Amino acid sequence: MNEEYFEAIDNEVINLHYFWVIFKNTYAVEKNIDLLNRFDPHFFGIVQNLYWDSILLNISKLTDKEYNGSNRNLSLLTIYNDLENELDNSIRRELNNKINKIKELEKKVRFHRSKRITHKDLKSVFYGKEFESNGISRNDIDEILSLIREFMNIILIYKNKPEKQYNIFMKPMSGEILIYNLEHS
Quick one: average pLDDT of 10-19? Predict the structure, then answer.
């Protein structure tokens, strides 16, 4: 397996989790939403949508096919395919199982990405309510990210490296600092 690819995807997974933790700390707590709405609901609504879209796009990128035309993607499938021949059957099955579960859960994310973020669906704009979220919940994202963490940690263990807690960060998060400063202003 190409170590540079693994390190690059590992960084993508860390950054995705960092964004997700900030998003949840800021927008998943009712008292925080009330506070943000008191200060500037329009601005913080835009920021919320930008964070949400960024999270969905990053999940879509991580779950892309290995190739897009002749271009190779940096994705979980690329890492899996690079490793596949050197893995024993049980690890191969376990990783393949994780990929299949991620792909199944990620269908709503990819639909949202295609209909609203990367393309503007004419049917939804002109013949009905503009596409919004397709029912993606924070629990859906938590489950997808949990599977991605499991996938990455299986590979780390296989490579005799320590597991990572991708969703735990030692320093205060930007969202927490923002809420604290707004509460005390």
Answer: 95
